[in-house]
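[step 3/7] fold_predict: job queued, chain A
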Amino acid sequence: MKKTTIDIITLGCSKNLVDSEKLLGLFEAHGYRVTHDAENPKGEIAVVNTCGFIEDAKQESIDTILELVQAKEEGRLKKLYVMGCLSERYLADLEAEIPEVDGWYGKFNYKQLLVDIDKLVEQDQLENAHRKLTTPKHYAYLKISEGCDRHCAYCAIPLITGRYQSRPMQEILDEVRWLVSQGTKEFQVIAQELTYYGVDIDGKQHIAELIEQMADIEGVEWIRLHYAYPAHFPWDLLRVMREKKNVCNYLDIALQHISDHMLERMQRHVTKEDTYELIRRLRREVPGIHIRTTLMVGFPGETEEDFRELVEFTKWARFERMGAFAYSEEDGTYSAQHYEDDVPQEVKQQRLDKLMRVQQNISAELEGQKVGQILRVIIDRREGNYWIGRTEYCSPEVDPEVLISADEDLKIGAFYDVRITDAEEFDLYATTRYE
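[step 4/7] structure written:
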C-alpha cells in the first residue's frame, strides 16, 4: 500500500526540533516519506510543531497554521495536524477557533499522531524508532530533560512543560553512541535548565557526571552546553570542561539582569554579588571560556538606575556572545498576575537598542582579537564562494561563523586547523593555507 507523504514544519527552539526529529524517525520507520520545514507543503499531510513561549513566537505559529488551513481549503493539502507548546497551552481555545485543523496534540502526546493516521500501528510500536536528524549529520541537539522547576516570574515554560524530568543517564549515553555510529561528531546538550539535571531523581545535580561520561565515548569530538542557570551552579562541571578536551570552552547561561531589585522581582534566587562572582569563577577556572547569555530589559518596575547597572555589568563582563530582549507579558505567569507592565514600549526599545550597541562594540573587539590565531573549525556547508565553518566557541545558527575560500579543498563535517585572517562583527575569515 502506498504510504502518505508528510511534511513537518518546526517552529521555535532546538528542543522542539528534537521532538520533530523523533516524529520524523517514527513515520519513516513505518514506511512514510517525510520532509521537514517545507515552505510549500507537497505532501498530503502537514504537521506543525508550534512554539508558545513569547508573543511573537505564538503569532508565528498561528500565522503558519492559518496559511496551511488556506492550503487545505484550496486543495493543496488533505490533512493538517498541530502539535507542540502552543497547543499544549491553549488546546481548548485553538480547537474552538480553528476547527479546520484535523487534530491537535500537545508537547508530550505527539507520537499518538502516527497511531491516529495509521490504524495498523500499535501503541507499543511508538518507542522503537531512532530519530531522523534534520541538521547536517555531523552535529545534533541532545535533549537531556523536559520541564523546569525554577518558576521565574516572567516565564511560561513551567506552565507549558510542567515539572523538571531528567532523562535516564544510560538512555542519553546510548543515544549518543547511536548518533556517533551514524556519523555525528558534535553534540549541543540542551535542556530548559541543564544544571538541574538529576535533581528530580535523587536530589543531586548529575550534569558533571553525565558530561564526563559523554566525553569518554569514542567519536565524540565536541560537546557544547546550553541553558545553564546561575543559582546553585554545579562547580564540578568546570573541572570537566577543563579536563576533557572535547568539552568546548563554551557555556550558555541566561542571566537576565544584574540589579538586585530586578533579580528579586524576577524571582531568580540569585544576587548581583553572586552573579559577579560566578563570572569571575567561570573565567578563572576555565581559561578562554566563551560565555553566551541572555538579558532582559523593561521588566515591570525597571528603573533607569536598574538599567544603568545592567549596562555597566555588560561592559564589565564582556560577554563573547549575548542576546537581549524586551519584556512581554505572558498569560498565567507570576509577573502577569502581580505586576503592572509599567515600562512604556518606546522605553523598552530604547534600552534594548542601547544595550545591544554596547554589546556589538564588545563583540567586534573580541572577534578582532582572534585575527592571527590558529583555531580548529568544523565545516557545516558550502555557500557561494565560501566554506562555512565554526570554532568550538560557536553554536550552530546563533553564533559567528568562519568563512574560508571555496577554492580550498575541504569537506563538510571535517575538522581543520585554520588561521584567522580577518574579522567582522559577526563573522571571521580564515585559511587552511598557512605556514
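[step 5/7] annotate
The longest helix spans residues 345-368.
The mean pLDDT is 92.
exit 0
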